[in-house]
Amino acid sequence: MDVVHTVAELRTRLAKEPSIAFVPTMGNLHAGHLALVEEAKRHGTCIVASLFVNRLQFEPGGDFDRYPRTLEDDCARLAAAGCHVAFAPQEKELYPSAQEIVLSPPLAAAQLCGDFRPGHFQGVVTVVAKLFNIVAPHTAVFGRKDYQQLFVIRELVRQLNYPVAIVGVETKREADGLAMSSRNGYLSREERAEAVRLSRNLRRVREGIAAGRRDFDALCEGARADLAGAGWRVDYVELRNRSRLVPPGPADRDLVVLGAAWIGRTRLIDNLEIDAP
Rounded distance, CA 38 to CA 21, Å? Predict the structure, then answer.
């Protein structure tokens, strides 16, 4: 596997590649990221992964400075997974000066995580647009754990006519159901044992709807109350339809329940798709 650090070097390396599948990451890789690489191998002959902690998508007071940087280990994992190129730029390489030109995310970003992380999705769409312009992939692969992010990136591609197919990959989970995340490494032993409560509550919402319940507000409020009662600080537990990521109407059947909550100093997110009867 080639490890490259500059845009010029990457463009030279990829110039003659006929089919590029791209996996953007912020590093600190786990099995969920490697599942994205495996999926990418189904869509391209050259697999490129980026390893870049993007300052623009961290809100003021966020965890940018303490976000784990594990480049050597990440490169070893990518090489073992069959990745061909790792792009690991320094911040000055992607942002040689202040990034004055930024993109506005779609309306779907102005809710859920957008309510609690100001500027986050602006930073996401800006860096993804830059990376698409640099890598010029035919396909890009993202995890469904960041469900709203995946929706926003699909809109980026649709509205700006990027010639990139976006592939979403199911959330990789620990044995007890906790969604894999780089931020799980922040959890203490006690917090890790408690962290599965978020996915359990989302499953209860899904099971209630599968059983025929349509009192969506009550189901979500029950999940929020259970988390808060166990000491979590809840940002949201909400239902949306999958087609437009808006609150579901009476006829909507393709749904998703999304949750974000803090356990100690760590913010966890998760979601589950629901096919309502």
Answer: 11
Q: Do 182-269 and 2-169 fall under one CATH topology?
A: no
Predicted confidence (pLDDT) per residue in 80-96, tens digit: 999 999 999 999 999 99
Sorted by where each begins, the domain ranges of the chain are 2-169, 182-269
Q: Which residues are identified as catalytic?
A: 33
136-167 pLDDT, tens digit each: 999 999 999 999 999 999 999 999 999 999 99
Cβ partners under 8 Å of residue 213, min gap 6: 219
Asked whether the beta carbons of 210 and 255 are under 8 A apart, the reply is no
- Reported CATH class of domain 182-269: alpha beta
Q: What dotted CATH number matches 2-169?
A: 3.40.50.620
What does pTM read for this prediction? 0.96
Reduced to 3 states (helix: H, G, I; strand: E, B; else coil), residue 125 is: helix
